[in-house]
Specification:
With about 120 residues, the chain is α+β, with helices and mostly antiparallel strands. The protein has a single domain, classed as 2,3-Dihydroxybiphenyl 1,2-Dioxygenase, domain 1. About 20% of the residues lie in helices and about 40% in strands. The protein has an eight-stranded mixed sheet. The two termini are about 20 Å apart.
């Protein structure tokens, strides 16, 4: 079984031409705190915000075969979680390395992308 610890972040997408409008909305209207995003790790633009102890990630949705929208959950043992999912025939998706996190995503049977991560 997978031992979940907490909700880490959720990722939403906006059209590329509306990214700055989205940033202004989340900062100026909702009052969210803009935080550093390791931009060099990503092929598309975006912003990250704090919402209490959870993060909101905003990105642009390029024409991809699969959406980059996802929910991310912290787990106690990311390796055990991966083994459990693989043993059940669940599709695994590799994620770019982010310092301080070990992570991967999986696609549920209904096409939803879910990220599991472990802080290190």
């Amino acid at each position: 079984m997978i031992q979940f610890k907490r909700f880490d972040h959720f990722h939403i997408c906006v059209p590329p031409e509306r990214l700055e409008e989205a940033k202004a909305f989340y900062v100026n209207v909702l009052g969210l705190e803009l935080i550093d995003r390791p931009d060099h790790l990503f092929s598309s633009a975006g912003y990250w915000f704090n919402i209490g102890d959870v993060q909101l990630h905003i990105g642009v949705e390029p024409a991809l075969p699969r959406t980059i929208r996802h929910t991310a959950l912290e787990v106690a043992d990311v390796d055990a979680a991966r083994q459990h999912l693989e043993a059940n025939g669940i599709e695994i998706v590799e994620e770019p390395v982010i310092p301080g996190r070990r992570r991967f995503a999986f696609i549920d049977p209904f096409g939803n992308r879910m990220e599991l991560l472990q802080l290190i």
